[in-house]
Amino acid sequence: MQREITLLIPTYNRAELLDKCLKSVSEQTFDGKIHCVISNNNSFDNTVDVVKDWKKKNKNFTLTFINNNESLEPIDNWMKTLQYIDTDYSKWLQDDDWMEKDALKTMFEDIQKYEPNTLIYNCNIYLKNNYQNPINNYYRNDTKKLTTDDVVNHVLQLAPVFPVSPTASVMKSKYIEEAIIFGQANNICTKKLMGNDLIMNFFGVFNDLDTYYINKTLFNFYGGDDSISLVNNPKILSHCYLRSLALMIEHNSTELTKHQKEIISHRVFATKIRGRFNKEFSSIQEVSGFDSKMSLTESYKYLKKLLKL
Predict the structure, then answer these.
(1) Fewer CB near the terminus (10 Å): N or C of the chain?
(2) How far apart are CA 200 and CA 91, in angstroms?
(3) Contact, 199 vs 211, CB < 8 A?
(4) What's the pLDDT at 309?
C-alpha cells in the first residue's frame, strides 16, 4: 500500500481558521505524500491570500486550489474537490478543524492493521465561548467494527453516539464520491450540508464495507458561530439525519427491531405536525420507507408539549 493521502478541504469565509487548518497539515509527522485540495466558495475575506501564502511556503504537502468566482450550494463546493483525488485513501478536512501532529501517521498505521474501507476517530471539541477548556476525548465508545445496528441506535439515541463529522474519518477514495452522490437523494437537507455527513461516515457500514471506530483522539473540532450544528434548527438537523439514515436502511434492506421502527414512525409523525405550524419542516417531512404513526397516548403527550399546554 502506498503511503499517500488526499485531504479535501471545502472552504468559505474562514481564512484565519483555514490557515490554522493548513498549519496542522504542515506539522504532520507522516512521511508519506500529502495532497491538499482546497475549493473556495467565492469567499469575500482573504482566503485567496492565505492559500497563496501557503503555496509559497516550504511545506510537506502539495496544494491544489479551486477558486470559484460564483457562489455555489455548499454541497457543490464539496463536490468540486473530488476530481482531484489521486490517492487510494482520502479524507475530508473541514476548514475550521485541525489535526493532531501524529494524526496521519496513526491513521496509516491503523489502515495497515485493519485494512478498512473507513476509519472513524475520536476528537476534542473547542467551543468559541469556552475555547480554553475543550471537551477532550468527546466520544465515549471503545474501538470496534461498526454494524448497521450501531448506526441506527446512534441516530435514534438508543446508544452512545459516534462522530458524524467527516473530518473524523478516512475512507477509500473510490467510495467517497459514491457516498456523497448517494447522499444527494436527501435533496433539501444535503444542499444545506445537513445529514449528508452521516452518509459520508457510515456509507460503508450499509454496504458491507469494513468500517471501524477507533478510540484515539486525532482531530480537533471548532464550534464557531457559523457551525452547522449551531446555526440550524436542531430539530431540523435531527430530522435530516433521520432522513439520511432511512435512505441507507432502504438501500441495504436493513432489518429493524419493532422498537426502532416505532421510534422512526413517531419522529416522522412529529415532523409532519411541526410542518403544519412551520414551513421549514414542511419540505423535509417525508422519510423514505417509513409511515407516520403515533399512538393516541403519545400523540397527546407530543401535542401537549408542542403547544406547551
Answers:
(1) C
(2) 10
(3) no
(4) 44
pLDDT < 70 regions, the chain: 1, 225-232, 274-286, 292-309
Closest by Cα among 14, 79, 7, 12 to 41: 12
Q: What is the pLDDT of residue 283?
A: 58
Reading the block at residue 252, the C-alpha cell is 441495504
- pLDDT of res. 301: 61
Element spanning 119, H or E: strand 118-127
Which DSSP category does 185 fall into?
G
pTM attached to this predicted model:
0.91
Containing 6, the helix (H) or strand (E) segment is: strand 4-11
Q: Which runs of consecutive H residues, i.e. helices, occur in the chain?
A: 15-26, 47-56, 74-80, 103-114, 148-155, 173-183, 187-191, 196-202, 228-231, 234-252, 258-277, 279-282, 296-307
Burial class, 151, CB count within 10 angstroms (exposed 0-12 / middle 13-18 / buried 19+): buried
CB 94 within 8 A of CB 74: no
Sort 11 into a burial class: Cβ within 10 Å, 0-12 / 13-18 / 19+.
buried
Provide the 3-class DSSP secondary structure of residue 181. helix
Residue type, 154: H
Provide the pLDDT for residue 223: 79
Residue matched to cell numbers 477507533: 214
Q: What are phi and psi of 175, to 5 degrees?
A: -105, -10
Query: What's the CA gap between 37 and 209, in Å, rounded?
Result: 25
